[in-house]
Amino acid sequence: MEKVGFTTGCLFKSSIPFNERINWYNFFGADAIELSFATPDELLSYELTPDIKKGLESFDCITVHAPWKQMRYDSDTTTTKVLEKLKVLDEQIPISGMVVHPDTIYVHKRLENSKLPFLLENMDKRKKRGIQPEEFEKWNKDYGFGYVLDLQHVYEHDPSMSLTNEFLDVMGDRLAHMHVSGENSEYIHVPVYLADNKQAIEKVLKLDFKVPKILEGILTGHIDLVAKNELELVRSYDSCQNNRSSDKVMRI
Fold this sequence. Notes:
The protein has 252 residues and is an alpha/beta fold. Helices cover 37% and strands 14% of the residues. It has helices at residues 18-27, 40-44, 50-56, 77-92, 108-113, 133-142, 151-157, 163-171, 198-205, 223-236, and strands at residues 4-7, 32-36, 61-65, 97-100, 118-121, 146-150, 175-180, 213-215. Strands 1-2-3-4-5-6-7-8 form an eight-stranded parallel beta barrel. Strand 3, helix 4 (77-92) and strand 4 form a beta-alpha-beta unit. Helix 6 (133-142) packs parallel to helix 8. It starts with a strand and ends in a 16-residue tail after the last helix. The relative contact order is 0.14. Mean pLDDT is 94; it is low at 241-249.
């Protein structure tokens, strides 16, 4: 069974402190987690305590979302500090990947030379870079980055979800995990089972790709029930008969 869990950002509207979210997700049976740091300050001020490390041991897949707000990965001192902090985290816990938004990268070699497990994510329609499969094809040739496929971001560019095929052809075996959510009239990232575009997102989930799924839908209302239902929905597709034996076979 593939690993499924939430990003810490799902609870940003709740009163649950960042570190307590780790045990909260574990309580609901998530076996994957993404530690999300929106800004450089959030990352640089974060400290892993022995209790937090112990809580993270319950997860089989740990990812980190590197800063994307107030951040430009360049040759500046902020980038140096962020990379140093990410290295410290990578030494302290078993991180399988570090997500970074392509539109924030201005010196790709700085990230590649760090030897950290950076993963480039396809972007939403508000961005100007990282939105076309052709861009990822070029990065394939120039760098050794892995990738994250965000299903909601695909939907924003193509409600039929056929664009997924092109991304998967380009990402191939560099695809490390998926970001899973949908949208409604209020938010662009909501749990799939509550989303207005649920059927479109399910088209990809039904293909049962053998990579971890990080759930990004914002948890509001009766958050216990919402988290439980979302986990159950996404995990239900793990039993699909299809499997990702070839990037060319599976199609939307």
